[in-house]
TrEMBL record:
Protein name (Swiss-Prot/TrEMBL): ECF transporter S component
TM region(s), chain numbering: 12-33, 45-66, 96-116, 128-154, 169-200
Pfam families associated with the record: ECF_trnsprt
Domain of life (superkingdom): Bacteria
Keywords on record: Membrane, Transmembrane, Transmembrane helix
Amino acid sequence: MKNVKTNDLVKLSFFVAIIVLLAVTPFLGYIPLGFTRATIIHIPVIIGSILLGPVYGAFLGFVFGLTSLLNNTFNPTVTSFVFTPFYSIGGTSGNFWSLVICFLPRILVGVVPYYLYKGMKKINNSDVLALGIAGVGGSLTNTLLVMNFIYLFFGQSYAQAKNVAFSTLYGIILSVIAINGLPEAIVAGVLTTAVCKALIKYTHRTALQ
């Protein structure tokens, strides 16, 4: 049992290192899109959730959120106030809800995929299907919660920062979900399936030795 726990902590450290590396590498972890950023950092969080469970997965999600907080504080865009209370533009400042947006969806990215994977395995024993759905679901958890929380907590300010009418904002949010969120989810599903399948096979083979 002690060896298993030590092994899991080593794996956790490995995933934390990947998240930090992605976050600090320009144009890799956080990809600038002018007024916002796309990201691939959710992928190691999803994989970690499936392999290590929801508790370690939630911690990886917290690390993801922390990198987002630091990135938006020290390397801001015009809409960074929705992710950090330490940034303001014009008369608009971040607040407590910035921390909710920054951390809660990312923590859940480390929880939801584990239960999707376990649930799908009970319905259908196919690893490929279960891993793919877990990857897609984890990615959409991040996108859907972040974008809808932005609308709920910062709708007027976000519309003003993007220089659009508030009445059209939710349509824009839906377009971001479709244009950025769906491709991110597909990539997450493919990579999660490929990486987790290889790691699960390797772990099983190692356990038999």
